[in-house]
């Protein structure tokens, strides 16, 4: 489980939180899902901010990050692009643009048995439904609690994951009240320890975008 990326770990925990969700019906989950991909691309130095705080690509998408293709290609096509433009397209659009990105990440988790896909009958025909396996959810939950409770120097990616789960209203499902308090303290502390980090900058700007969308 520790070899999974921030996007994949978020996917497992967010989907496992409510098996009926595809993130498209929850603004918080949807925004945090896109944020996880942007943070991962930032951590890999695949995207960055230009002098006007717009997002640009800096290199080709790594071969092992194909599940980020949808978001990466959107940025590549539109660059330089504002963060709000990205979230508007994937989260607030009525065209369900989030689904392809959701499916690509889900598919990336199937080969190792973290996620299963089945066909579900809908009004307009069959559609793919992704379900997190119980073993994957158990491992992800234990890993999350270890990150929060076992003393160690959290990586920027671990801090970002905890933050996204809290903002997506997911964290409380998997941890005790005391552990959640510990997580919130880690989040507060990270504002100083990650002060100069590009990941910190991305998280701060996502905060502003998220507040604007949810308040509408």
Look at the structure and name the CATH superfamily.
Answer: yeast vps74-n-term truncation variant domain like
Mean pLDDT: 88
Strand content: 5-15%
CATH architecture: Orthogonal Bundle
Terminal-residue CA separation: 37 Å
* Strand adjacency order, main sheet: 1-2
Number of helices: 10
Query: CATH top level?
Result: Mainly Alpha
Shape: globular
| Secondary-structure content class | mainly alpha
DSSP strand tally: 4
Tell me about the largest β-sheet. 2 strands, antiparallel
Q: Radius of gyration, rounded?
A: 17 Å
Protein name: GPP34 family phosphoprotein
GO molecular function, one term: phosphatidylinositol-4-phosphate binding
Organism: Vagococcus allomyrinae
Membrane topology: Peripheral membrane protein
Describe the structure.
This protein starts with 5 loop residues before the first helix and ends with a helix. Strand 1 and strand 2 (55-57) form a beta hairpin. 59% of the residues lie in helices and 10% in strands. It is mostly helical and 216 residues long. The strands form 2 sheets. It has a two-stranded antiparallel sheet with strand order 1-2. A two-stranded antiparallel ribbon has the order 3-4. It has helices at residues 6-17, 27-43, 69-78, 83-92, 98-108, 134-149, 156-167, 171-174, 177-193, 198-215; strands at 47-49, 55-57, 115-122, 125-132.
